Amino acid sequence: MSDWKYIYVEDGKENFTDAPPMKPYPSFQTELEADPNAGLVKKRGVPWEKNFTLPRGPTYKSFQDLPNGPCDENHPRIFHMFWTGPFTDKPYLALLSFLYTQNLGLHLPPDQPDPKVCRPQFWLWINPGPAASVPNPNALRNMFESLKTSPWASPFLHPRFKDVIQFRLWNTTEQLDGIPELKDEWRDLEGELFNSGGHIIQVPKEKEEAESKSGSTTSSSSSLSSSTDEDVDGDKTVAEGASATNEAEPDDDDMIHRLGSKSSSSYDRLSVILSDMARFILCHRFGGIYLDADTIFLRDWEELWGWKGAFAYRWSRLEKYNTAVLHLNKGSALGSFLFRTALKNGLDFHPMTVSRYTKDAHLEELLLRLPDALFDAAWLNTEFYQRDRPPQPYFQE
Length: 397
Known about the structure:
By secondary structure, the chain is an alpha/beta fold. The chain contains 10 helices and 11 strands.
């Protein structure tokens, strides 16, 4: 049976060779040393990017050479998921499938884990309020009180799951300040934090000041609420229900105060845009794999953890990324490039925009595009494909 192992197990330096050092071609070496910006065209009105040192890649260590047992600190096995609004059946199913399919060793006594297994963790990041708001000082306590009273979330608070499932509070200011490539400059982008494909959703500054006086926000993140929507013609417009001159009580279901998507007519677009950015922040800061909240595990991900490169999902039939599944190494050079590029493009992390970043820089090979065998087949209908022979009942209006 040893010849038919389902999961490949490393054996020291087996099938591993050190990559040869790369040097510039001799014909270009002198020119590159003389002018590192040769051949580049400067965008009008934009200063050159400041020089910064890319982080060195982690040293390869085989399974047998890891100093702290089976887990590699440079490649932590963490699943991240971002959620806004009340805890529902959607994250419940994701967590339940995680417990059923991953090699967690929950059948073993808590004080006797398998020393040869690095069991993954699931970090569920919860944004306690609308995307444009800032958590109050009691947000963490309120979050756990809400989880305890939720029939969907409370089962996962059992002490048996404390080492594999963690509920964490999302704070946008804290997370952006935790990214070295952004922390000194992101506050200059007031009005562009909610940027999706160039469309900016605006939350007026007057609205933020009124909320801060009422105690619903904290002064430490005053720049978060100045965010924006840009219409098809490129003009910035104030989001619905956010007029600075409207002193009436806020509508809990307008675009700014909306907390999670309740239906197609009340789509929480701000939280979706925030999650586009959050997935890159979480993977760059902590390492691991980000998953959208509508993901259900079907099998163990051991093989994917064994591959150390970065990857993302494919967008349907297109040669584009869908970052519903995203893996970046912690503090990687690829992550530094993406954050610096996004910073110059208004912190736009829409999957189509990220695809453009990597393509324009000829870096697509650094972010593997996973095949889309299980991509939602119904999505083809929205792209006007398979409408005559849809893979499932298709009802036209």
